[in-house]
Amino acid sequence: MITRFAPSPTGPLHLGHAYSALTVWGVAQRHAGTALLRIEDTDRARAKPIFENGIYDDLRWLGLEWPAPVRRQSDHLADYEAVLATLGARGLLYPCSCSRRDIVNAGAKSGAEGLVYPGTCRKRSMDSANPGDAIRLNIATGLDQLGPLRSFVERGSGLPVKHQISPAFLRDSFGDPVLKRKDSGDIAYHLACVHDDALQNITHVVRGMDLWALTPFQVFLQQLMGWETPQYLHHALITDADGKRLAKIDRSRALSKYRSEGASPNDIREMINLPLSSC
Known about the structure:
The protein is of the alpha/beta class. The chain has ten helices and twelve strands. The protein has one domain: Rossmann fold (3-Layer(aba) Sandwich). A hairpin with a 6-residue loop joins strand 8 (151-154) and strand 9 (161-164).
């Protein structure tokens, strides 16, 4: 078993991150596996060295160790560009100049990760790409190139459950996701995440339930690229008193704040009521 904790250094780690990190390391420990740390810092405008250093400090304080070197996605942008080149050569990509307002005005509906792109630029070729265009994956063309879609195994409820991916669900819920962002040129989470899972031989993806809805598309992208599909365990989320998921902007829940106030790692474990779950 190889799994990973893959935070983005766009804010301080909070109690929810502690729950996820401890769950990842706990699963690896119970199965005599390896837990990797990966820094997902492709959002160059928001990723900050101070937050990355805070990740290392907080995890050490929690008593969690990981193999070195740590993979930092911003150090490997050429890897992701190579994936884009492969997909582009197969006719699976197109440039898109649409703004969010354009997409709203086109009557886009809500999907798995926000508005479902209506396909306004779908007939454009990559030869027409301009600086600042987003790069989207044409799901319909991808489906045409594949045979039967893969299933994936979810172990979040303890017993493994196989989920079959539906072509209709991909088309209706994702609407040609962005793989390279408009204006910034940042590589999108989907592409960098699944590339690195394949590169690092991740066998079990342990992460929060907030990412559950994105799994079918990521498995589809794995299949397009010929990468293995890991098993998944989507764990529960830590919420505040109002039932809202904790966010990085809520500095009152930052682990560094608890550390500075004299809390111990065991205090954190009690706060998040981490269960002795198994996988």
